[in-house]
Each structure stands twice: as C-alpha cells, then as structure tokens.
Amino acid sequence: MNKYRSHNCNELRKKDVGNKVFLSGWINKKRDHGNLLFLDLRDNYGITQCIIDKENSNFNTLEKIQLETVIKIEGEVVNRSSDTINKDIQTGEIEVAIYKFEVLGVCKELPMPIFSDQEYSEEIRLKYRFLDLRRKKIHENIILRSKVISFIRNEMNKFGFLEFQTPILTSSSPEGARDFLVPSRLNPGKFYALPQAPQQFKQLIMVSGFDKYFQIAPCFRDEDARADRSPGEFYQLDLEMSFVEQEDVFNVVEKLLVNTFKKFSQKKFLFDKFPRISYADALLKYGSDKPDLRNPLIITDITEIFMREDVSFEIFKKLVKSGSNVRCIITKNTKEKPRSFFDGIDKWAKEQGASGMAYFTFEENKEVSAKGPVGKFFSKEALLELMKLTGAKVGDSIFFACNKLKELEKITSIARDKIANELGLIDNNSFAFCWIVDYPMFEIDDQTKKIKFSHNPFSMPQGDTDKINFKNPLDILAYQYDIVCNGIELSSGAIRNHKPELMYKLFSLAGYDKKQVNEKFSGMINALSFGAPPHGGIAPGIDRIVMLLANEKNIREVTMFPMNQNAQDLMMNAPSEVNEEQLKELSLSLKIKK
To answer: Which of 579, 545, 547, 38 is nearest to 256 (CA)?
Structure first.
C-alpha cells in the first residue's frame, strides 16, 4: 500500500465489501444514468466499476472529466445488485462507491478511443503508440510477450543452458541482409555494424569451452517490412550447443516449443513428433519450404502425363517440350461444387500473374470421363493414369498449372492455400509444426548466374567431408534446418562447419579466396584454428512465436514500439537529421541523392 492505491483495479472481491479503499488508474468508460454516474477505472491489472450519486459534491466535476484522465478515488466497496453483476471481469460482483477523487494526470482530447477495438490507420496508431498500448487486446499481447520470454528463460535454464550477452557494435558481414552501420568517432572513416544475428559470437562461445549458450538477442537488419517481419529490429531466442548432432538440437527445440505453446495456448498439436520434410519434398508437395501442414492438400508433379500421345492439351504439351513442368492439386468430393467455384480459382490465379489454373472433375458414366473446360483433351487411359499418379477418385477435381519450376512452385503454393481456405479445410484451432531439412549448400544466383550460398555459409556439409564431390556444388546438402509452424518460419539453424580448411574450400566455390575469408571472418577462422568442438544451434523468432500464440496476423500487434512500413518511428520521429557539429565529430559529410 502507498498513497496512490490500497488495491489494484483487478483485486477487489465480495470479501472486501464494507472496506474503505483507494484506487488509481485511467477513466476507461463513463455511463451517466442521471442521478448515478458509473465510471470504469482501469489500470494494468484490470477494471473496477466505481459509482457516484448526484448528492456527492464531486458528481458534476467527474461527469465532465475527459476519458483517460488519471485519477485517484477513495470510497467503499459495495455489492452490485444481482442484475448488474458482470461475469466478464473478475471484479464484476462488487463496485466502489466514491467518496472523493483527485486528478493525477490530465488528459487532453483523444485522437483515438481506448476502450474500443475499432481499427485505426497505422499512422495514428504508431504516432500515438502509448495510447494504442492502453487498448485491451494489444495491452494483453504485450503482457503475453513478457510472460513467454520469462517462461522460455526458465525452460532454457532447466535444459542446462547459460545466458550470455554478445556485442551490439560489431563488424559488417558480407552475407545476409543489409547492415545498419554506425560511424566510429575514434576511428574516422570506419564503421561498426549492428548485428544481423549473434552468429559468429555464439560460435566463438562454443570455441571458448562453454557447452550450452542462449540469449534473447536483439537483431538488426535493413530489410523491407512484411506482416511477419519488422523493419529494422527483432528479437530471437539464440542458442548454440557443443558436441551435438542435428537430432540433439531438434530434441531441445521441440521440447521447448511444445512446453511453451501448451503453456500459453489451448490449441491442439496436429503432430506430437514434428515431421521431418526434406527441402526438395517441401517444394514438390507444398510449393514452399514454409508449408502450412494444417492444410491437407498435396501438390503432385504430373508432367509425364503431357508426354502421352492420347493427351491433346497442346498448350501445355508445347510448354513441357520447352522445359516447363505441370503440377496439380486434387480436391476431394468436389463434384457438387458450382462452376463459379472452379472459374473463381482460375480467375484468381490470373490475378496473381499466372496464366490461370486449368481444371476438371473426374466422373464415371460406364467409364471414367472428365467434366470441365479441358476434360475433352484427356483419353480414358490418360485419366486412369492421372488418378493413379495423384490418388484421385471419381468425384474429385483437379487444378493444374504449367510453368518453369520456380514460378510453378510459387503459384501452386499460394493456390494450395487459396483452395483450402475456399473449401474450409484449415483447422484454425491447431498448431502444425515441422522441420525442413536437407537444404542445398549452394544455389545459382538468378541475376549473376554464379554459385552462392543458399542458406548459411558457416554450415557443415552432409556426408564424409573427405569424400565430398566439389565439382558438383549444387549436389552438396548441408546440415541446415528450419522450424515452421502453420506456414510461418520460426527459425533457421545448422550444425556448424568447425574445420577451417573445409570452410576455405566451400567459400572458394562461392567466389571467395582465402585472403577474403581471412579478412571478413578473421575472428571466426582464427578461433577455429585453436581446437573447435563440433557444434550447432538455431534461433527461433520471439516475435513470431508470440504472434502465433496471440493469434495475430501482423507482428506489429505483438511488438511494443514498432516502426511503420517505411522503417520510421512516427512517435519518436526517427530516423532524424543530425546537425553539422555531430557530422564533424564523426568526420562525415552528407551527399543526398536527389
């Protein structure tokens, strides 16, 4: 107890009736019933209804006072009448009869109401984020975030991990997203970089002889915003372990995620043991390495069907001859669906930039046939082969598209989600986790056509490292893995390459000579030369974990002070200009592009 409150606004119950109390908080709502004024007082913990009658000398003042004014009230706890009990709040059986009150913080006219869940523009919400955070839903999201982080910390301690902090000012890395750079005053012309992740430092911690490390780590990347990605900064559970294989990392992370999601959500798990899906299979069956496994639809490659002579769908046949592929999605028991459903999917696909999606439904009138605009181009034998290939049955429908592989994967992936949503196939009351494994070590850069790392340059290649065929780098698989839930990538991780000579060889395939590797990764290469243990780790995103638990679709809803889509903090006016004196101290001058 202090001079501001004897109880918080979620604390009083029937047992407190008759007690004199004083509460402090924000005026959430007022309801004027003529002779009685009802006032909901809100603080971080909840709401208490307070009442004052017209005989009280404070009635007129309270009647006119602005919502969100901070006040202290003194009064007596009384029972609510049976017909006014509010079961939606924990203090719903009592109210406080106000004797007197005191204004602690004046509130001017509000740019947005607090007690309403009405949507407002991003600009208003972020400019007045301190008001936005008072709103019930987002306030609870931020409290949830705090509780999740505390729970994760406790779990990691139970698993035997030690928490260490790594530097924020570090050196720039040539891999990954754009760095945020910080000029050095003491070293004119040189710059620090804010860490995109503590990747090298956490590996150095393992080389230092520590066995299990974790950190709730801030990460900084100059990337464009998305619904599941904040521009500028985000937080991740960074962890690393020594003397481990891939399965050891999986076991820790699965236990942690199951414990966390069961603690903070009532949703069910579709898989007790997270499925392992190879990168190649993920692209084939789901069109993406971030599959939503709540969706039962599977993509099948049916290119071979269009090589048959008894298939006369010439548009696709010509494309297949020129190197395109054909992939399809089967929908079960959709023969009764109206033509508008099928045409709607075709139209939608064209709106996504594809050439559309062909379709027909398998029927049987004495023999198998196809009902739909392109069904006539397939013989009975071709249809039977198609049913065998896809597992389709009479009454099922098929949607298919033809294109070069990357574009085909893109359209079939989003079509799979679109069709499932249209048919109501996704169980929104569940979590479906999976591991994506066996990533290729290298890929071809679309623009330069040169070999580049596809995932993490510090990963260990699979197989006997003395027998790797470096002449075919695109065939090399790595011990790299992603954890995915409901179509959202929570994290990437890997077993690390702890052998310097092997690292030089792999970097040379991506165009880096030994001198460049030594310059860019001097700390890492040097440390690995002094006895490095086999080690590996991962870094699940805190923001995305909380987003899933809070059932939010935008990461902004679980971030306390997010930036807008243009990486601007509208509340604090950042980024901002600096004066000439500051630039001079840093030995900098500006040359702004027009």
So the answer is: 545
> Among 181, 177, 192, which residue's Cα sits nearest to residue 223?
177
Q: Is 18 exposed, middle or buried (0-12, 13-18, 19+ CB in 10 A)?
A: exposed
- Please give the structure tokens belonging to residue 534: 């086999």
Spatial distance between the Cα atoms of 410 and 9, rounded to a whole number of angstroms: 51
Q: Are 509 and 470 within 8 A, CB to CB?
A: yes
Q: Is residue 229's pLDDT more than 90? A: no
Q: What share of the chain is helix, strand, coil (3-state, %, to 5)?
A: 30, 25, 40
The Cα 221–Cα 10 span in angstroms is 40
Is residue 404 within 8 Å of 454, Cβ to Cβ? no
Give mean pLDDT, residues 308-332: 96
**Whether pLDDT at 405 is above 80:** yes
Q: Is 205 left (phi over 0), alpha (psi -120 to 50) or beta?
A: alpha
At 149, the pLDDT band (50, 70, 90 cuts) reads very high
Q: How far apart are CA 398 and CA 330, in angstroms?
A: 5
Residues 93/80, Cβ–Cβ less than 8 Å: yes
- Measure the CA–CA gap between 363 and 561, rounded to whole angstroms: 56
Tokens of 293: 């496994």
Digit-coded pLDDT (tens) for 456-466: 888 999 998 88
Residue (of 360, 334, 355, 361) closest to 401 by Cα position? 355
- 576: three-class secondary structure by DSSP: coil
Contact of 488 with 261, CB cutoff 8 Å: no
How many CB atoms are located within 10 Å of the residue 162 CB? 13
Amino acid (1-letter code) at residue 510:
A
Q: How many other CB atoms are there within 10 angstroms of residue 232's CB atom?
A: 20
- Give exposure, 431-466, as e/b (b: 16+ Cβ within 10 Å): bbbbbbbbbbbbeeeeeeeebebbbbbbbbbbeeee
Query: To which residue do tokens 């620090």 refer?
Result: 192
